[in-house]
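Ticket #4471: complex job returned nothing on first submit. Input attached below:
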Amino acid sequence: MAFELPKLPYSTNALAARKMCQETLELHHGKHHQAYVTALNGFVDKDASLQGKSLDDIVKSTAAAGGPVFNNAGQHWNHILFWQCMSPSGGGIPGKLEAKINADLGGVAKFKDEFKAAGVSQFGSGWAWLVLAPDGKLKVTKTPNGSNPLATGEGKVLLACDVWEHSYYLDFRNVRPDYLQNWLDHLANYEYAAAQL
Ligand code: MN3
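Support reply: We reran it on our side without changes. The output follows.
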């Protein structure tokens, strides 16, 4: 069965008041994410060894070699999470998650600084992540291009932030740090993150 573009969990204008405009979401979801899905399905059609595999299995089995199948499968996997990691009522951190952030990352302000630094320092395109690491502690990390914590074995994703330019250029032009700060303060779906604990 072919992979499919998931529906957004909100309308394309639902995040505009939080500085992710309708045009950004229409292009990012309807064009960029759709293109990864279409490309991935094209590779699966032509390669019997990929057929019948789950998206997780394709990401894991192609991670070491990299290449176009991994890039497109990774980007499909990453964007499925990204849409869930934002909310029209984002920014509020539930007590359970805040306590864990305080214990593992030294407080919310330090967490946000660390997450922002990860996203800003990812040279070129990539992702910033908050994960529950295999040791049971929260960890901030980053990956290039289409890679992700499933591929690197860094843990379960609580938050995924796309730092490719297509995610912020219409709203923040070249100023990635402002996109990340706004994302953490007003867009991030910490309810989703807390539910992953
Ligand atoms: Mn993207």
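The CA atoms of residues 87 and 189 lie 5 Å apart. Closing as resolved unless it happens again.
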